[in-house]
Amino acid sequence: MFETIQVENNNGVALITLNRPDKLNSFNTQMHIEMQQALDNAVADEAVKSILITGAGRGFCAGQDLSDRAVSAGSENESETETTAAAPDLSSSIEKYYNPLIRRITNSPKPVVCAVNGVAAGAGASIAIACDVVIAARSASFVLAFANIGLVPDSGCTWNLTHAIGLARAKAFAMLGERVKAKQALEWGMIWQVADNENLMSEAMVLAERLAAQPPLAMQHTKKLMNTAFEHSLDSQVERERLAMQYLGKTEDYKEGVAAFMEKRKPTYVGK
User: Fold this and answer.
1) Of 13, 17, 269, 272, which is most buried with the most CB atoms under 10 A?
2) Distance between CA atoms of 53 and 28, rounded to whole angstroms?
3) Which residues contact 259 (CB under 8 A, 6 or more apart)?
4) Contact yes or no for 169/188 (Cβ under 8 A)
5) Range of 250's domain?
6) pLDDT digit string, tens, across residues 44-102
7) How far apart are the first and last CA of the chain?
């Protein structure tokens, strides 16, 4: 079904693997289209409870494939001569491809885990840190190479990164374009966990399956509350929490969770 990605559904987890290893899984137009479709499919599939994104080969994602004319030029209808002569409108590809991808990850009602198996550069780093839970191989690294080619971080990076590690670190990271190793990313609070290279996927799958076993509505509301927390005052946020608790307290999953706790058994959640 897909050519630039691979998708497997097992144990409630949709595993999406970026699969252009010869290009360090950099994004071209086709990969964008296929990723959007794969994420939409995962959200629509009732059997899928969580999503796990990783990369094939030695890198997670090198960001934008600069050799992809359609994306770098911002228009698939320009002739080769026009593309070469005219300055590209980079906002076109951001509006059409990158922003919708980040919004799909952020707005997904299902938790999204990212397993960073190698370098995550440029938009690849942006995509990784947009996910809900990030686990990285010990040899993995992150680099924001935008400034090195005269650009700014995009794909939600300036928001997600600043909120994750603070303004001082985020600005230096983005402006200097230096590589940050997985261990340092963990110490900064940019990612959740570091795994030995050979254990990355097994540990990432354990995380994804644990999230898949959690009550879906609670996961959805927790994610939404936390993703938008900085947009609200404390008074507003505690009210939003109250409304979420009011709603969740009337669900079948809450009743099941309490019953399972009292009966000392594993709960079975249905998302209702």
Assistant:
1) 13
2) 17
3) 267
4) yes
5) 216-263
6) 999 999 999 999 999 999 999 888 755 554 433 434 444 455 677 888 889 999 999 99
7) 32
The answer to whether residues 167 and 109 belong to one domain is: yes
User: Which residues 6+ apart lie within 8 Å of 50 measured at CB?
Assistant: 12, 13, 14, 110, 111, 112, 113, 208, 209, 211, 212
| Domain at 106, CATH number | 3.90.226.10
pTM of the model: 0.91
Nearest to 122 by CA among 84, 161, 96, 70: 161
User: Do 20 and 70 fall into the same domain?
Assistant: yes
Same domain, 55 and 170: yes
Do 240 and 169 sit in the same domain of this protein? Answer: no
